[in-house]
Task: structure prediction
Amino acid sequence: MTLGNLKNRPAQPHHRQPVDYAGAALLFATTTALVLILDRRTLAAMGAEANLASFGLFLVCLCGLWFHESKTKSPFVNFALFKIRVFGFSALSLLLVATCYAVVFFLLPFYLQDVLHLSPSFIGLLFMAPSITTVALAPVSGYLADRLGPRLPASLGVVFMVLALLLGGFLRTDSHWLLPTIIIAFGAMTNGLFNPANSTAMITMTPDEHRGFASAVNHVTFGLGNILGVALGGLVMTAAFEYHTGLQGIAPTTNEPAGFVAAMAATFLAAAGLSLVAVVTSAARGDGKRREALAVES
Result:
């Protein structure tokens, strides 16, 4: 279908531009160093000196990326586009939401299977809900974004994430399975309402020749948010588990169900605070006026 569509399209002038391989390498090095810093197991394996070196590498790569991309004529990461209010705040909102979303769906399966002792088959059915809900709500989000702008449906989606995380703070070792099910459902509503509207805001508010970059930023930011969610969720979970159990130097385990659940609830509440920031950044994106993109383009 793609090849057939390309054959039927009229020929358009193509302006070949050089590929910024140095910028791509710096971006790869920056994100890799960031993950190394945040991953607890990597930190434990490398030792204190290597951890300090990773942090220094991250700062050097980040500064190098910023300096290089601000000087090159064809940057791999066009930082000028982040001056567009809608694009910049949409990217930041996506990073925060993806991070919080990953925290929820990373920790809940351990709780459902090892604390509530639900069967893997039943848990699998519960986790089908996000996909089904996303399919159902995505057209609604798109319709609202077309009629009212992306700010309202995207911000409403983030509110459901806040509610899901706040409910997570009430989980106990003997909670009914309906409570985590509601948390999963609210997370699914976030996915269905926020992502389509936010993607629309990021892509349509950039100049036409930068639409590919905007789409790439959308996917990279979502992936980076998932990585950060797992890393930060594990980090906070470990610290809270040590606090509630008094056990030092061990990973959170469901062999201590009370401590595990208390640590998980604390992690959810910490993520709820982060999701409140996402509500602010989503609401602050503005109405999505096209003139901002045109001003940056000129």
